[in-house]
Amino acid sequence: MASSGRSSRWDELPDEIVLQILSYLDPLHITRLQLVSRKLQKLCLDDELWKRRCFEESPWYQYLKNRRRLSYETEGEHRDGAALQSPEANGSNTNGDGNKTAPDAKKGKAVPGKTRRRYQRWQEIQDMANWDPTFPNERVSWYSEYIHRNGPTCVNWLQTPRIRDRGYEAMMEARGLELYYPYDGNDGIGAMLAVSPLDDGSVCLWDVKGTRGKAGSLLATSKSDILFIDGPGSQNTRRSKRVDTGVTECVSVDNQRHRAYFAVQSHLIEIDLERLEVVSRESFEWSITALSKIQNDVPLTVGTSLGIHLHDFRSRARATHTAVERVDQNDIFKSIFDPTPLLPYAPLSQPTPVSIIHLPLRGSPDLVSNDIYVAGRFSNILHYDRRKFPVIMDSIYSGATINSMAAMPHPFSSLDSEVRRHGELSTEQVIRSKGDGEGWTLIAGGTYKSKGSLEIFGLSQTAADPIVFSDGAGSIKWFERDGLTECRRLRIGHCEGDEAPSLFASMSAAGELARKIVSTKSREGPDRPNDDNILFWTGERLGLVSFTPTPLYQSKDSDEEEPDPAAEAEEEERRRVAERMREALERQADEVRFMQTFGQGVLGE
């Protein structure tokens, strides 16, 4: 909090001078300055200050300036909308009227500094408008945005669940991930829990933000075997009776009813998250390969290897089933002539859907429309309308194997995006392109010809944040909303909390891969700065990317053990040195590959 009633010399300075000083400081110093005075507290969070810093330090802007510089040096003359050279590098420049040179330059005279500065300011405003990723009425904390783009990052590993038997101890692997907000985030304390099925058939809860216990620690674990097909006490050693490790979207949580649904082979098991007990089981004809998120007032969409189903979990008649429905093998005719109609489902000619999303409702991101999009190990993204299910409304050809999808309730134009990427739209055209369009943006990440792919589609009604995703090399990457400009990347690395340090632990082959990532932004109360960390699941463990200079916690942390500050400091220093060495080697390898490619290009000419 700001100091109360105590004046500061900062208060005597004009706002313009204070903002200019703040523009040269990093977020950590500015965070400390907020404690000096109320004036600084207000100015330190100034949106315009941090938006300008995000823009000026963005790779997008650096690429744009480099393209203009190369274009100018190659052609040797100015073009409309071409490079803006600095006064030292260029004696004349384009004016705001679109002429190739300023009027005085045409007469052989030097361009006045005032004209040049006016043009530079005009060009900067236009560039910033082309870069600006936000849409009208979209709330963004540019202070948090700057931290996410340029601030320090740390990988924190959540506490590892273990099983102990007869003196032996073993790590239990997590088989999925979803977030649980009790009472839909309105429980009064902002609790955020991570839910995951474990390899022994139990359900585990972690406290992500430390509202109910220690941050990153285990909060509760159910009895083992409750997620196995035959239930507790049966022979469940076979993998065919456990959660399929190849299914990424195997958990879906109902925050209001405190229930979670787990896909276990061809069964959907409902768990009460307050009691951690089985409520119901339902079987499907084929193995479940994907679950949609649960939203209010709409059924859960279940993807099986050969079809898409709508599971209305709100129906109490079906929720009363406490055992898996089985066909009586001794009386096949009973099932053939059973008058109970089959639930509608959409058959698939190509198997294995992997990702299912419900399109958000325009103007209300927390609500969903009737549109369902399904993607997977097939070349098209399928579109269903819940009101006309199971008819396929249309499809989008991708050609890639889609592993995950996300959607934003904002329009997207591939043409406008391409022109904006080169900074060629005027400010008025940018405003018009954002305000006049209607529709959504569909983001699909997957694999195309053995390489990672990121595709963005504009969806019309008739037919922040930067984008974050993980790749197959063990990195989490941030991209601008154009889907082409990389903002930053972070290597997940290796969780060393449960093993002795190894020479090979920092090598690329030992790094973890993030199979699923989710945002941890709070749902209740006003927005807090830097409150949107990234929770990820590697297929075995849970981790958290925090925008802090030091880790928040480690997998080996527990309430029973008192951490050793000296050992932690030594471990942190060792990790930093290993990270710097790895980055240096990677840069050297990149340079070698670049020079090899460059040499081949020269010889080929």
Description:
- The structure is a single chain.
- The longest helix has 40 residues, at 565-604.
- This protein is of the alpha+beta class and 605 residues long.
- The model is unreliable at 1-6, 78-109, 316-333, 500-509 and 600-605 (pLDDT under 50).
- Among the domains are: 59-131, no CATH class; 159-347, no CATH class; 352-463, no CATH class; 567-600.
- The chain contains 13 helices and 28 strands.
- A four-stranded antiparallel sheet has the order 1-28-27-26, with no helix packed on it. Strands 4-5-6-7 form a four-stranded antiparallel sheet, with no helix packed on it.
- The chain is globular, with a radius of gyration of 28 Å.
- Residues 87-98 have a biased composition (Polar residues).
Rg to the nearest angstrom?
A: 28 Å
What is the number of strand segments? 28
Strand order of the largest sheet: 1-28-27-26
Low-confidence stretches: 1-6, 78-109, 316-333, 500-509, 600-605
Main sheet: strands, sense, barrel: 4 strands, antiparallel
N→C terminal distance: 64 Å
Query: How would the global form be characterised?
Result: globular
Percent helix, as a range, is: 10-25%
Global structural class? alpha+beta
